[in-house]
Structure formats: structure tokens, C-alpha cells
Amino acid sequence: MAAAGKTHATRWGVVNVVVVLYALFPVWWIAALSFKDPGTLTDGNYIPRDWTLENYRGIFQTSEFTRALINSIGIALIATVIAVILGTMAAYAVARLRFPGKQVLIGMSLLIAMFPPISLVSPLFNIERIIGIFDTWPGLIIPYMTFSLPLAIYTLSAFFREIPWDLEKAAKVDGASPAQAFRLVIVPLAAPGVFTTAILVFIFCWNDFLFAISLTSTESARTVPAAIAFFTGSSQFQQPTGSIAAAAVVITVPIIIFVLLFQRRIVAGLTSGAVKG
Amino acid sequence: MSTMAEPTKDKARAGKALSAGARQERRLGWLLCAPAVLVMVAVTAYPIGYAVYLSLQRYDLRFPARAEFVGLNNYGAVLTSPFWWDAFWVTLFVTAVSVAVELVLGMGLAMVMHRTLFLRGTVRTAVLIPYGIVTVVAAFSWQYAWTPELGYLAELLPSGEAPLTEQWPALWLIILAEVWKTTPFMALLLLAGLALVPEETLKAAMVDGATPWQRFTKVMVPLMKPAILVALLFRTLDAFRIFDNIYVLTAGAHGTGSLSILGYDNLFTALNLGIGSAISVLIFICVGIIAFTFVKLFGAAAPGAEVKR
Amino acid sequence: MAEIVLEKVTKRYPDGSLAVRDVDLDIADGEFVILVGPSGCGKSTTLNMIAGLEDITEGTLRIGGRVVNDLAPKERDVAMVFQSYALYPHMSVRENMGFPLRLAKVDKATVDSKVEEAARVLDLSEFLDRKPANLSGGQRQRVAMGRAIVRDPKAFLMDEPLSNLDAKLRVQMRTQISRLQRRLGTTTVYVTHDQTEAMTLGDRVVVMRQGLVQQVGTPAELYGMPRNLFVAGFIGSPAMNFLNASLSAGNLRTPLGDLPLDDGARRALEQRKAPREVILGLRPEAFEDASLARDTGGPVITATVDVLESLGSDAYVYFSAEGGPVTSAELEELAMDSGLRDTGAGTDQQIVARLDAATRAREGAPVELRVDMGKAHVFDPSTGSNLTHPES
């Protein structure tokens, strides 16, 4: 019995290790590259023989990267805040109120969730040039928040539906004013959902590449994923592999931190809208 | 309760009460949704209309003054061009293969996450990393891995092979990168579906003499069907707009360009806004057809349906 | 502490439906009143209107002599216990129970001492620092009670507070609530759909149906003198037996045979100009095993026992009477509410009799039953009203 349990455990252990390796190997490889000096870059070793921070020093000395990092953080944060605020309002209405047009709203956000971004690139490119926000922060913030709104509305309305609204009544009978009931009871209950949604939306904005290369032309609004892609062409003879790897690691770090800290919430958020609950 | 005979006087007053209470709720609902709706309309509906308008023009960005209305000529040019059809088949192939592989792998992964008792947290965390990582970063990692002299994976191949420079190997590598990145998402959606299968139903099937495979095909899959369809729909539409991975891995060279790459090239390399817009509109129509097919074929399983109740 | 007075209170929903119609109710200070009825009868709506969670469309509501129609819940000083308990999941038991006091800006020391006092009374002292998620169903229920009693409010409002507990715990908590209410002497309005709960807990019981009050009275009054078919069928377990009957010369012709009415009933029926076709209602204890009966009055019928349920103290005997089942809107609704329609009981009328445990009735064998016609009720099938009731 004990032996059977043990082989069972071993089997699961092996499976789990395989899964973890599968998930982490490409990440490990690019991290290893980022710590190699140019001389050993091509040695094919999984672990750098001579650890160096040269690549990191290099990218942080160029405004090409630092500026892009600031752009990435700023644009993603602002887009996230706006999308979550607008999404919270709409999701509250979807989850709690009865009004005609609700189905239209849901259908529309579903449609946008499925929208091919490339279809918007050409018109947005032209519109943004005409109204003068091409290659600016707003030029990226606006499409980002639009495309993350469906995600925000979906996730948030699923969370809001879970809140037992009896509690609002209970608070009122317990002597709370409507404002107190909202602040002391509803907000603490809704906060985790809003926070989770913010993480998902941030990851979405942080990840984008197509808009970032299409709607920017200079350093002034180019985000890191786009900047990395342009590192490649900067020198014809020496591939900037080390720099790209280092930059890649830098923008991966926040994602890994989110995942490590909020694993449970992210899973809950990703799956909330997808399954009837 | 709700159907009771009552004097007409009451009914008239009730009619007024209805409009007061419901109107307030309705107004609040609209007010709360208005900003989101305005943004979505302004940033998607209007531009897609504008794209349709642009696609009917001859519009070369190098000669904006020579723009003129040409009707459906751009569409004719696109649809008779081999570039469009090559990109179309590449996109379809990559979409079909990667979604199919993801479904199988994702189901396996979901089972592992569902059944495993220890290291569960670790596995879930690890699996979220491919989901969260920036696609471009992952694509570069894969590109370096397959680059001769640089990558660990290229070393496994006979020397002199550069898989990313040949159409078929490159396509398979693109699919690999896509599968790696998105299988976890698929697995998480399926995991949520698995959680809906009651443990007791499976036990009942076991008592009724079903083999593990039968329990899977006859009990779990039917019960998970809504989750599977939603996952498939999301992933199919997502894969159909594949861009980042191809852009980094091959830049669309050697017959590996997807429709999104084609649209991008026409706009930013050929600087042809008219043709680029026509491609945009055509891709939009393709996505519409895919979504429509899913919803028509599987009806209630469409993601929008869950909200109705 | 205060009395609660409802005058012609009506609730009409925006879609025009009437949830509560012209409810008149006088609840004395310290009284324990139960609102009972099938789902959708308006009992919860009435409670919510008293709490201030729903607007009163028409009528007046007074708590402690003050009209509170337009006051927000917080200004009414009433406490409510919800069916779902509505405990705040992000607060510990201590914080949950202290919440109303903190909202009322009571100083911290007083809050602590009141919470601890309530926790002691409810046997919750050791759980004060737990979150609701880590409590059992019974403990959660007690926390909800605790949150209500710490404030020492004018009234307790309870909305099916026990229906989420399992049967045994429900009986225990029932006694505890009753004891607590008596000790605190706080006016209490308690909503339930369970007539047993209503009968055991309340000083007075209000039976509601379709938004209308059917009868208000002590449990004994409701049981002994139901005003109409609905109350008669709703109160009592097992329920009253109903039989189609026709009146002729002071006799009732029923599927069980001819049953003579007693004098009081005959007079009442004459006075009321009773129709020819009526419904006869007999509670299970109106039957006696004729071989055991001490008094010899009353008709004797013979029935074949279908099922015998021996409970030790009593024995229930089930037998069928010929002829179709009694039909009336009231009974229909009761059957629907209790799910009895789905039992597939066939077309014959099922009758249940409660006999002394010493009965020698056997399944499949005939038994002689004496009917105590002094306990018989006669109803008008068209209006449902009890024709033998002294005042209806």
C-alpha cells in the first residue's frame, strides 16, 4: 500500500517536473544569454561560464531602452487605471442593474475581445496622424484601454456577481448610511476582484507588440517590446543578442513577480468569465 | 403572486410607479456604461468604418494628394494576389494545427493541475509564466534557440541546418512557439471546466463500470463541453491574428507570413493605405465568419450566452 | 423596545404586481409574532418594509408610536437576522458583532464589553477572532443573532433565520431563540414558511397568502378555529383531511358515509345559509379507534388500513376514501408549495387518522373508527371560509 502510494507520488512528481521545465526552459535560456559576455555567447552552455552584468549595464546606458521602459510602465499603468475604472462602472451595471441595452453592451465587448487588432492598425494609424496623437502616449493608451475593456468588464462582472448583496441590506439595518455600506462592506469585498482585473489588464497592455510598432515612430512613445525589435536592426554585423536578452529579462521580471505573488488570483480572474458560475 | 385581479385605478397608478423606479435604475445603468461604450465605439466601430472607406480609395502614403475613389478595385487586387492566398493558407494552417495541439496538451495539463496533490501551487505558478511573458521576449528566446551556433536547440540538428530559413521547418517552429505560449491559458480554461465535473458523477461512472477512457469521453468531455468550446473559440480567434511570433522568428520571410503580417507590410513597407485597409477589412470579415460559425454550430455555448440567464 | 403597528400597509412593485395588500397588524411591546405562509405570500416583503429595506407603497407603519414610513433603516433602530446570515466575510466574529455599535459611534470599551457579553450568552466566546468562513452553520447563525442583540434594538426582525440549518440543529436553535427572546423581552417579528416553527415559537401567528392576511391568532386559535380552508390546510401536521360532502337534513353525506352534524354546527350552518355542497375538514385526531374509545357519542365508520405508521406515542393510520380529491384554489396552492403534487398519490382521497398507540389496527385489515363531530369543520367551497367558525 505504502509502496504503491510512493510510486504514485513519484509518477506525479516526474510529471510535475516535466511541466515546470516545459514552462520555464525558454525563460531560463534567455536569462542565461543575458548574463553571458559577448565572447561566450555562442558556447551553447545552459549556465553562463562567466557571469557578467555587461549587457544590463549596456542597455541602461542607452536612452533607447530606458526611455522605452518608462514609456512601457507609464502607458501600461495609465491604460490599466482608466480601463479598470470604466470597466468597474460598466461591470457593476451589468451585474446589478436591469436596463435595456445590456445585451448590446455584452455583445459589443465580446465582439471587441475577438477583434483582430491588425484591422484597426491602418485606420488608427491614419486617424492618429490626422489628430496629432501618433507617436505619443495617448496614441497607445487609447487603443490599449479599449482592447482591455472587454476583459475588464467580463472579469469584474463575474466577480461582482459573486458578492452577496444581502450584505448591503444587512449593513443598512445595522445602521450604515448608503455611503458607509458601500465603503465598509462592498468595497472591501470588491477590492480583490478589481485588483485581479488590474493585474490582467496590465499584463495585456505590457504585452502588446503590434500597436506598439505601428503607432509609434520614435523613442517618445515606443514601448520595450517594440524597442527590442528595433535593437535587432541597429547593427548589421554584430547581432545585439546580449542586449535583447537583457532587455527581455528586465520586462519579464514584473510579470514573474505578479505571477509569484498573485498566482491564485490570476487563475481565478482568467477563468471567471469563461465558465458559467 | 404577480398575477392578481386588481381595480383599474390601481393599475394606472402602478404604471406610474413602474416608470419612476425602473427609469431610475435604467438611467443609472446607462450612465455607468456610457463611458465604456463611448470609448469602445470611438476606438473600434468608427475606425473600422473608416477602414472600409479607406479601402475604397487608391491611397498611397507617398502620394497622399493622388488619393481617389476606386470602388472595389483594392479588394479585387488583394483577392487575386497570390500573396493574400499564401498568407491566408499559412494563417489557417498555423491556427488549425496550433489550436488542435493546444487542446490536447491543454487538456493533459489541466488534468495534471486538477489531480496532482503536491507541488500544485508550483505547477500553477510555472504554467502562468508562459501566459504572462511578453510574446516578443518568448519569440526571441525561441529564435536564439534555433539559430545555428547560438542556440541549444539548433545544436541538436545536423550542422548547417538553419530551420528558420526554410518554409516548413519555420512554420513548425512558429507553431511550437505559439503552442508553448498559449497552452497554459487553454489549460486554465479547461481546468475551470474540470472543476464543474462533480466528483460523485465520476464515482458513479466508475461504479457503473466505465473505464478511465470512457469516464473521460462519456462523462467529463460532455460535461465540460461549454468550457471546451469557449476555450476553442477564444484561442482560434486569437491564433488567427498571429503576428508577434512570426514577426520576430522569421519576419514573414520564406513563405511564413500570416495575414496580419501581410497587412502590416502593406501599410508600413509598401505604404499603401488603400490596399492595407482592404486587407484589414478582409481579415475582419474572416474573423467574423469564424466567430459566427462557432456560435451557429454550438449555439448556447457562445460566451455571451452565459450572462443572459 | 417598542410596539409595531401596521395600518393598511400595501406594497406594489414597479411592474404593477401587489406583494402585500392592506395589512393591519398590532404588535405589542415584547410580543413574539410570526409571519407564516407559502413562498411568495408577502411575508418577507412585509418584514423588509418594517426594516426599511423596501418602500411602503401605501399605509402607515409606526414603531414605538412614531411613523417611520420615510425613515432609512439606520434611523429605525431595528435589528435583522437574514436567512443567509449576511455575515461580513472580511470581518472577524468580534468585528461582525460590533459593527452596528461602531457605526453608532459607541466607544470602544463599551463595544468590547457588549460584544463579549453577547458572545457569552450565545456561547461564542472562543470564536470571537475567527472569520465567518471558519465557522459551522450553527455558529454562523449565532453570530448573526449576536449582531442583532448587541445593539439592544427596538425590535428584532428575523427572516427565516433557521432554514439553512439541518433539522436537529434547527430544533435546538428554535428553543434557544425562544428563550433568548423571553429573556430580553424585545419585540420580535419572525418570518418562516415552516408552520411547525410558527406554532412552537410565536405568541401570535399571522398566516398570509397572496399578500393578504388570512388570520391572526395564537397557535391554539389557528389550530382549533381556522377561519378558512387555507389556514386549516396550512396549520397542522399531518394536515387536516378534506372531504367533499353534501348537506341534507343536518347530515353530511361524505365518501366515508353519512355523518350527523352536532347542534352547534347545524345552527351555524343554518344561520350562514350554507350551500348544499360543502367541504368537510377533519383533523387526524378527530378519529378514534372505536374499540378503544371511552365516550360513545359520534358516528362510527369502517375503513381498510392502507398503511400503519407506529410512532410509539401514537399510530397514524392511512386509508382511502372513494371519490375524487377535493379541489379548491387554496388547497391547490398548499399542495404546490409543499410539493405534494409530485408524490403521485393517485386519484383516491387519502385520509390519515391519529390513533392511540394501543390500537389493534393492522395493515390490510378493516378498522372501526369513531368520528368526533365536535371537531369537524365545514367550509364553503366557493369562498373557502369556515362556516363553523364562530365569527368569520
TrEMBL record, chain A:
Q: Which SUPFAM superfamilies match?
A: MetI-like
Q: Does the keyword Transit peptide apply?
A: no
- Tell me which InterPro entries the record gives: BP-dep_ABC_trans_perm, MetI-like, MetI-like_sf
Where's it mainly located? Answer: membrane
Q: Which UniProt keywords apply?
A: Cell membrane, Membrane, Transmembrane, Transmembrane helix, Transport
User: Where does this one sit in the cell?
Assistant: Cell membrane
Domain called ABC transmembrane type-1: residue spans = 69-262
One Pfam short name: BPD_transp_1
Specify the superkingdom.
Bacteria
Transmembrane parts of this sequence: 12-31, 68-92, 104-125, 137-160, 181-204, 244-262
Its placement in the membrane is given as: Multi-pass membrane protein
| This protein's record includes keyword Membrane | yes
Family membership: Belongs to the binding-protein-dependent transport system permease family.
Which protein, by its recorded name, is this? Carbohydrate ABC transporter permease
- Species source reads Streptomyces marokkonensis
UniProtKB/TrEMBL annotation, chain C:
Q: Where is the ABC transporter domain?
A: 4-235
Asked if the record carries the keyword Cell membrane, the reply is yes
Give the UniProt keywords, A-Z.
Answer: ATP-binding, Cell membrane, Membrane, Nucleotide-binding, Translocase, Transport
The lineage's top-level taxon is Bacteria
Question: Can the keyword Membrane be found in this entry's annotation?
Answer: yes
Q: What span is annotated as the signal peptide, if there is one?
A: none
Which Pfam families does the record cross-reference, listed alphabetically?
Answer: ABC_tran, OB_MalK
**Listed GO MF terms:** ATP binding
Read off the PANTHER family from this record. MALTODEXTRIN IMPORT ATP-BINDING PROTEIN MSMX, TREHALOSE IMPORT ATP-BINDING PROTEIN SUGC
Q: What's this protein's name?
A: ABC transporter ATP-binding protein
Protein's organism: Streptomyces marokkonensis
